[in-house]
């Protein structure tokens, strides 16, 4: 796989939308079984050397995990007693994928309750009834995973510079985006909610504290877009100068956006993206008066022997 692979959104929209529903099914397994963690951090998926995983989920006295393998194009379901099942990733309806995944779990002795209506999408067809989404282009999915790999690398580097409360680099299956979030340490005004097919109380928990968040979404541009926002958004945030030149503030989205292709084609993609992440964070932290001296540090200095 080439570094920073090109993938036009228009070339894989049907596959993307199908995969979005499949990740919701798998993500809801973790939601059903994992103990609640602040800001819903118990529910996302994580980038791996093969695709996306739930990580270990407790079920009774066992653990199990589910991993989308985007190399062999299978969903792997594994338990700590050594058993496993596979579900093929191939053109099929969401309803069929849901049934096959449920059957595989039952074969492993796992029966979890699931709210089968998808969240954070305008048209929310219950999984068991969804015969509309049925596309799967393995080449496109492999390239999307390549985008996630590069985004994960740079977001992880950016995360390392913050010693305050900071989320993992994780993939939220609701919005279908990879994100990392920094916290000022202060509580935030009650979030108004408003995400489609998602209770307002979900957003209230997610944004209970002041944040500067950034990530990558495979939409919002020719090849997807990196984004950055603050909640609550302080005065001056939207007009703060940010880099690189291709970055801009979208009043409609309420966030800064940087087209993926602008990073991919930069002479130094890592530097371009890190500049975007740092300058948009400063737009939030400076204008909201974060205690940056207490929250930031050089990871190389921390790693040196004392």
TrEMBL record:
InterPro entries, per database record: DUF5996
Pfam families recorded: DUF5996 (PF19459)
Protein's UniProt name: DUF5996 family protein
Organismal lineage: Bacteria, Bacillati, Actinomycetota, Actinomycetes, Pseudonocardiales
